[in-house]
Write a structure and sequence with these properties.
alpha+beta; Endonuclease I-creI; 2 domains; four-stranded antiparallel β-sheet; 58% helix
């Protein structure tokens, strides 16, 4: 099951207690479903949970039954209403007459309460929404064929404290979010807190993996630098040996030569601890730099 399907499954478990919220959710479904005209309403879904919720939702909201129900075992489930009296009943609830208006609009008067706005978002997502797997990327969108509805949804979301973005895809208007925090808040507002928590967990896991990878890469880079530095120091020692200059070195530099040649794999901090007496990393590094300077001369 995809993450988007999991979200819709969770949303369909939200109880239909208030009639006003059932109407608001159905309003979202009507404005974001596959077809909504004066002659027909058609809702198409592949979600079995949403398909199971729709008849109860419309009965609670409008005391209305669908004229067409999906066939048993169908992949894409199609619900439709074509009877004029039923269509008039649906749209009259929202103060809208499809036979007179050229375009659908959101009637904000029926979405004044916060719980009704959340229900409207839930219906819009169930009918025309999707969200990607947060383990891959962050993207939640609501798609409708009604441009005016998309613009008014944008205004509604702004009033609710969200900052959505807009785009067009063929004949559809898209309202979308790409920030993980915003998607978490939208999922919670719609009634899917468990999915929001799953997104937060996926984000934390991605951040942890990224942190580990950065640390591993950093350690590997530091190791490469240490190996290159040790190689340069040993080449300097070989140069001094070839010139017969090792015997004339001060005792501290001789000790540095002996430790580096005996332990080419150790870091400067580890070599500094082997000195007698132990010295600081910077002090030991100073001795090695002096050896390299002598070799260059």
């Amino acid at each position: 099951m995809s993450f988007s399907s999991q979200v819709k499954s969770e949303l369909c478990r939200v109880p239909l207690n208030r009639t006003c919220c059932a109407q608001a959710e159905a309003y979202g479904v009507l404005l974001f479903c596959s077809l909504s005209t004066p002659a027909q309403v058609r809702i198409t879904t592949e979600s079995p949970e949403f398909a199971g919720r729709l008849p109860t939702l419309f009965q609670k909201a409008f005391q209305t039954r669908f004229d067409r129900l999906p066939a048993a075992g169908a992949g894409k489930r199609v619900f439709s209403i074509t009877q004029p009296d039923k269509l008039s009943t649906l749209w009259a609830v929202f103060g809208h007459d499809p036979s007179e208006a050229l375009a659908h609009h959101i009637n904000f008067a029926v979405l004044e309460e916060p719980h009704c706005r959340s229900a409207f978002l839930r219906g819009a997502f169930l009918a025309g929404g999707s969200v990607t797997d947060p383990a891959k990327r962050y993207h939640l969108e609501l798609s409708t064929s009604h441009l005016s509805v998309s613009r008014e949804l944008h205004a509604l979301l702004l009033e609710m404290g969200f900052s959505p973005k807009e785009s067009r895809r063929k004949a559809n208007a898209i309202t979308y979010f790409k920030q993980s925090n915003a998607i978490e808040d939208v999922l919670t507002a719609m009634g899917a807190p468990l999915s929001a928590m799953a997104l937060m967990n996926a984000k934390a896991e991605k951040d942890l993996r990224g942190s580990i990878n950065r640390r591993v890469n950093c350690d590997a880079a530091n190791l490469d630098k240490a190996v290159d530095a040790a190689q340069g120091q040993m080449e300097a020692i070989y140069t001094l040996e070839a010139r017969g200059m090792l015997e004339g070195l001060p005792d501290k530099l001789k000790e540095a030569v002996d430790l580096r040649m005996a332990h080419p794999e150790l870091t400067l901090s580890q070599l500094a601890e082997l000195c007698d007496p132990p010295v600081s990393k910077s002090a030991f590094n100073h001795r090695l730099r002096k050896l390299m300077m002598l070799a260059k001369r």
